[in-house]
Amino acid sequence: MSALELIVLGTASAVPTRQRNHNGYFVRWGAQGYLFDPGEGTQQQMSRAGLSAHNLTQVCITHFHGDHCLGLPGVIQRIARDGVPHPVEVAYPAAGEEYFQRLRRASEFQPTDVIKARPLEGPSPAPFGDPPITALPLRHSIPVYGYRIEEPVKTHMRADALAARGVAGPSVGELKAKGTLVTSAGEVLALADYSYRERGRSFAIVMDTGVCAGAAALAKGVDMLLIEATYLSSESALAAKYRHLTARQAARIAAEAGVRKLVLTHFSERYTAQGFERFAAEAAEEFSGDIVIANDLDRIGFPAR
Question: Binding site: which residues?
Answer without folding.
Answer: 63, 65, 67-68, 140, 208, 266
